[in-house]
Structures are given as structure tokens and as C-alpha cells.
Amino acid sequence: MAKDYYKTLGVEKNASPEEIKKAFRQLARKWHPDANPNNKAESEQKFKEISEAYEVLSDENKRKVYDQTGQVNFGSNGNEGFKWQDFSHFNDFSDIFDDIFRNFGGGGSFRSGYGGRDTRQLDLSLSLSISMAESYRGAKKEVRYKRTIDCPNCNGKGFEGNDVKTCPTCNGTGQERVVQQSGIFRMVNVITCRTCNGRGYVGSTKCHVCHGSGKKTEVETRTIDIPAGISDNTQFVIRGIGDQEGGQTGDLYVLVNVREESGYRRSNYDLIVEKEVAFPDVALGKDESVNIFGEDIKFKIPAGTQPGEAIRLRNLGFPHTRGTGKGDLLVRIKVVVPKKLNSTQREIIEKLSEELNTKHSWFGK
Ligand SMILES: [Zn+2]
Ligand SMILES: [Zn+2]
User: Fold this and answer.
1) What domains appear along the chain, each with residue ranges and CATH number?
2) Of 96-105, 225-234, 345-354, where does mean pLDDT reach its minimum?
């Protein structure tokens, strides 16, 4: 074996993919050239070696070939070997870079220089309108949205095959300089090379599926679980289903609007409804029921309930979206006065009035 990749990463021959990844991450942090400003030459060499080892051992097929033959050819010109810029397709590189970033305070050009992307740029958002009943009970809602993903044919590279050459625009650095003129000021920005998308190399055969863009747009249909209790204007995030680029995937932000529904009002986690009742019902008390989004809920009106008073039914409000428990259902009592009376009713009420006004005060004084 020309090179012992296992030894390079310090793992056993039968190491699991997780162990290999872990070993690589540790070494990559240690040996990244930006983390070793005083020792650039050696760290570059080391970084190149561990990257090459990881490129092979992290790929099931390449690892198999390597285990059997002791070597793996890269590209059509295998003698050229591994290019150390050539790792933009490693999914986990960006977070390794993030770590290095945090630890060593590198500049923004670093990420773009190595094909890393700010995944925030890959985030998508959509808004969703639900009924109050759906927010009360929770719902499953189907959403459709457009997302851009890496072309599956070329893995987002834009070219097919292994015939690659150093990018003529950036000479392999993955970065290009753009000059912006703003009034009398000239600003030079370093951005991700647009020719090679930060890879540092380009292929000679354009991908026949994406025609070189490396991208594919698809319409995604997803069923989203709306948790019960969600209130109007709430945003939540579903990780990993946004746009995809260079193997990284953004998130989907869903803004939920709850439509108003006549007869129902929400206050924090409480649900407030109104119930119309006749005077004798509040005076004498009564078993009643109230319809909550299609379901009858029974409750008792205690004798002597006052107009406008709210009867609190515990734990029948909106479920808490954080933690457990529910708000309450408040049934506000509206006493309805009849607009017309027949003779019998009139007689009875006159009697009642007389009784209340003479023997006892109406107000109980
Ligand atoms: Zn380039
Ligand atoms: Zn393609």
C-alpha cells in the first residue's frame, strides 16, 4: 500500500464511518492551515493528507476499492492525485469550518473560498392560514413550495465525468474579486467564484441534465403538523427542507396565521365564547351546553349568575404549545330580554315584578 489512510486518520482498519468522521474532524481542526499561521507549509501538507484519507475512507465505494487494491485513482489523471481544494462535496465540511472559524476568528472569505455556504441563504419561508378550530385541535396541513436542490445527476457540480481542470477564473482559489464603483469609491469584494462555484476546478463536460447550472428546481409537497394551541402570527422552523446547495440544506420557516372566527375569541390560552340565556335560567340556574367548534360541551349555570359574568370551565381552552396544560374555556353569559311577550308571559312577569318590588328588593337589599 502506497499510503495508509487508516494510519493517517489514526483509526483501525475496521473503524465505523462515525469513527472515521470523528477522527477526521479532530485532525481537520488541528491541521487546518488557517489554524496554523506560523506553520503553514507543514499544516497544509498534513491537511492535504488527512483530507485525502477522509475522501477515500468516508466513501463506501472508494473505501472498498482501497481496501482491496491499496489505491484509489482520482479522476482521469490519477497521477495528479488529490487536489486539496477539492472537498466542497463533503457535507460536513461546512460545520468543521464553522468550528475552525469560531476558534480562530478567520475572515468571511474562508468559507466562500472552500465552497462553504451560509445556510441562511438556503432558508425558505412560507405562510399558512388556518382556522381557529385548527389551532384549537391541531392540524395537518399540506403545503407546496418550490425549492432548488443540487442536480442529482452531477451532485450540483454542473459537469459530468472526472475530466477536470483548475478553474480559469479563480486559478483554483475558489474566490473571485469583484470591483464595485459607488460614486467616487471603488470597492473590491472577494466573493465565491461564480465560474466554479467555489470549487476551484471545472469539468470539461457540462451536465446534460442541468446544463451546467448544477441546480434542479422541484416542487415539494409536505404535510406539516400544526401543533394544537398555536396562536396567530407564530413562526416555526422545520430543519433541513429548504434549498440545497453543495450538499448543504437550509430550513423552512412557516408563518402561521390563525383566521378569526365569529363567536370565538382567544385571550392567551383561554377561549372565550358567549351564551345567550333567558332571565329565568340565570335566576334559577340551569344545565346548559355550548358548541365549541362543532362539539357540544355541557356546563352548569349557577343560580344567581349575573349578565356578562363568565363561567370558567377549566382545561377546555387552547393547549399550551410550550410545556403541558391547557387554558380555560370562558362562557360569557348574555341575558336576553324578550322583545315581545304573550299575555301569559306578561302576566307572570308582572306578578314577578310585583313580588320582587314589594316583598324583596330586586337587588336583594
Ligand atoms: Zn473558480
Ligand atoms: Zn447536473
Assistant:
1) 1-84 (1.10.287.110), 120-153+212-260 (2.60.260.20), 265-358 (2.60.260.20)
2) 96-105
Question: pLDDT per residue over 109-148, tens digit each?
Answer: 233 223 344 567 899 999 999 999 999 999 999 999 999 9
Q: Are strands 124-130 and 252-258 parallel, antiparallel or unpaired?
A: parallel
- Alpha helices per DSSP H over the chain: 5-9, 17-31, 40-57, 60-69, 93-104, 109-113, 132-137, 279-284, 343-358
CA of 323 to the centre of ligand 2 (A): 46
CA of 122 to the centre of ligand 2 (A): 19
248: three-class secondary structure by DSSP: strand
Which ligand is in closest contact with the Cα of 153?
A: 2
Q: How far is the CA of 162 from the centre of ligand 2 (A)?
A: 14
What separation in Å is there between the alpha carbon of 248 and the centre of ligand 1? 19
* CB atoms near residue 276 (< 10 Å): 9
The answer to whether the annotation marks 263 as part of a ligand binding site is no
222 is in an annotated binding site: no
Ligand-binding annotation for 271, yes or no, is: no
Whether residue 74 contacts residue 59, with contact meaning beta carbons closer than 8 Å, is answered with no
